Amino acid sequence: MTRTGVFLAFALGWPLLATGAWAAPLTRDLGDGLTYVRIRELPSDLPGGPAAPGQALILDLRYLAPGRDAAAALLAWAEFRASARSPVFLLANRVTGTELQAVLRRVSRGKGCVVIGVPAPGFEPQLAAKSGPEDEREAYDALGRGEPVLSLLVENPGKTRLDEASLNHPPADEPEDARVEPAKKSPPIDAALQRAFHLHRSLRALRRL
Question: Do 39 and 46 contact (CB within 8 A), yes or no?
Answer without folding.
Answer: yes
